[in-house]
Design goal:
Elements: H1 2-9, H2 13-25, H3 33-45, H4 49-61, H5 69-81, H6 85-97, H7 105-117, H8 121-133, H9 141-153, H10 157-169, H11 177-189, H12 193-205, H13 215-225, H14 229-241, H15 249-281, H16 284-300, E1 310-311, E2 317-318, E3 324-325, E4 331-332
Antiparallel strand pairs: 1-2, 3-4
Helix pairs in contact: 1-2, 2-3, 3-4, 4-5, 5-6, 6-7, 7-8, 8-9, 8-10, 9-10, 10-11, 10-12, 11-12, 12-13, 13-14, 14-15, 15-16
Length: 334
């Protein structure tokens, strides 16, 4: 580590990048996001495309540096000009949503199309998103479907997830729960949390599609553990109704209370009736114990990251949330 730091201080961009990663991940040094940002920016100033994309993301999200979407856009531009495909996607997102630059859907589409040409499946998911909702042009749901298919064939979990939603949720698309389960399962295997939730929910309603009796519950537990409030709410409903386990008011209250903590006002509105009923049913001492357990668990969890899909106020699925990628191509967020 001393040799790495010495080379970084001497201005070698590859070593600056490696030192930044070490501080970001806490490998060989204590994790320090400010130092990670410093060394990413040093490497970026020496023209390293990966560092340019990463420091752009840091400025986008305020990681180790003050939030500055204009500086983020600047670094995305440089990384994209260097040919980094993920930076091209991020630059397209910046134009699509007006982050650090005026909105320009036409430029965003062009960047996404270039990225798809370089084999990036998430860019195809964005093009599907644009066509489905008519962002920067007319609504074209047939074209959206084709883009989601292309993204899925390029092994992108968000494209597969989005296509699964069309097959399972949207009335203006042909229904095929078997196909939706396959797509959600692929996306879930890639680690996409929303796919785990949707697959778990689909399997609760269609247990004949499950690989095992516990698959749905396992998926929902994983999604809840990642901070997804709606998965916690489903687990509460399962405990309340005795689906997959004996009915248990205490378990139900725990999950509903955790859901409320995770999801804030939206979740509180959804679970309010169940929480109120269970508060009348359970003794005060047990309520206090369960609330404390839920609060402790919540304090140890990350905030859920909702990207291409988000639950609306009415609990319906929407597709309108930006995805920002770090330099590894992994989806990250608040």
């Amino acid at each position: 580590m001393n040799d790495l730091r010495k080379r970084a201080e001497q201005g070698y961009p590859e070593q600056q990048l490696e030192l930044a990663k070490a501080y970001l991940m806490g490998k060989g040094v204590p994790q320090d996001l400010e130092k990670a940002a410093h060394w990413y920016e040093m490497a970026a100033r020496r023209g390293n495309p990966e560092a340019e994309n990463q420091i752009a993301y840091f400025y986008q999200k305020g990681i180790g540096v003050p939030t500055d979407p204009v500086r983020a856009f600047h670094w995305y531009q440089l990384a994209s000009a260097s040919g980094l495909v993920w930076a091209k996607v991020n630059l397209g997102v910046s134009y699509l949503y007006g982050m650090g630059v005026p909105k320009n859907a036409s430029t965003a589409r062009h960047l996404f199309q270039e990225a798809v040409g370089n084999g990036n499946g998430l860019a195809a998911a964005y093009l599907g998103h644009m066509d489905y909702f008519g962002l920067g042009g007319p609504v074209d749901k047939a074209a959206a479907d084709k883009w989601f298919v292309i993204g899925s064939k390029l092994h992108d979990p968000i494209a597969a997830y989005s296509l699964g939603l069309l097959y399972s949720e949207y009335d203006d698309h042909s229904k095929d729960n078997h196909r939706a389960a396959e797509l959600f399962r692929f996306s879930a295997r890639k680690g996409y949390i929303l796919a785990k939730h949707e697959l778990g929910r689909l399997l609760v309603n269609h247990p004949e599609l499950a690989k095992s009796p516990q698959e749905a519950r396992t998926l929902l537990l994983e999604a809840s553990g990642a901070g997804l409030w709606n998965s916690s709410a489903v687990l509460g409903a399962l405990a309340r109704d005795g689906i997959g386990e004996p009915a248990d008011a205490g378990h139900a209250y725990y999950w509903f209370f955790l859901s409320k903590l995770q999801g804030g006002a939206i979740a509180e509105k959804v679970v309010a009736r169940d929480v109120s009923v269970l508060e009348q049913e359970l003794p005060d001492r047990e309520l206090a114990k369960l609330s404390k357990e839920a609060q402790d668990r919540f304090g140890q969890q990350p905030k859920a990251v909702m990207f291409l899909s988000q639950l609306g106020d009415d609990g319906g699925v929407q597709l309108r949330v930006p995805v920002i990628l770090d330099s590894t191509g992994k989806t990250t967020g608040d």
